[in-house]
Amino acid sequence: GVIVSIAYTNPDYPIKGIKMLEQGYSLKKTIDSLFSVDESPQYRQIAMMDKNGKTLGYTGNLIMSYTYAGSIEGDNFIVFGNSFMDNQVLSLMANAFRDSKGKLYERLAKALISAQNAGGQRSGKMSTALCVKKAGEHGFNEVDVRVDYSLRPFDDLQKLIDKKKGIEYLLKSREQSSKDSSLFYLNKSVEMMEGWTLMYTELSKEFYKLKRPDLAMKVLKLGIHKDKLFRNCLPWNYFLIGYKPYDKEISKMKFNIHDWLEALNSLIETKEFIKAEITGKDNLSKFPDSSHLHLLVGKALEGQDKITEAKIYFKKAMELDKDNFEAVEKNK
User: pTM of the predicted model, to two decimals?
Assistant: First the structure.
């Protein structure tokens, strides 16, 4: 279930309350049990939902006396809060959730933003957050975005939501059966990823796989325009080697061993195995003691079905570093 405590927050409520729900307590019995050991329930505001979607809200009478506050219990959801500008904020938030479509995190975002547009809190705003946990996922949240301090927190929250949507468009592009459809979703992803330069390297790779080096390079130039330090990431897109605009960008760069490993990885990921073999072997004279370089040359050969030669490099990689787990696996 879910238990949230706000207003004069009592952290014991969620901790102890969830244990009660696990033991089979009803929501009413759980909250009554919590109140029985609380000296100040009139200052608390609690929202609860059990695993079946039943909800229960409680707002202490002292909170109700001084501010617009309360909760609305809906079908599988509950909205609640206090210090609202007026008594319409809560109902508009609930209506926005009920009437919206899309994934859960999108509907939650619309509810939050609708509440703010309706007036929000009387005391103003400086933070907001949105979290969605998937069933069975104990270690990860499906969505977990927060703005801890901002003069425009809901605008910033929307930007974070857009980044999440951008990742979804990227994944959707890979599922398409036609090149045009894939390009459509990739371009949508670029729009949503605005400013997230790290993802530009991934988007560039996807454009390249679709035989569009021009668009792959366009995305990288967006990253350079946003942040000059992004140029350091260009080895990650070494699959563009031989494409004049890319060659020009890296012409003055001096690659270290880590850059070359990233470069080889990028060639292997885009199935440019011959280029990866040539590039890797060229660098072995400079970095003969690199276990990972030998491993990647082996993978480039393996990608061409040159298995006998690949095994030589895998063996050397393991000899150079017995803790190179992938090299050890390749030698089994």
Answer: 0.85
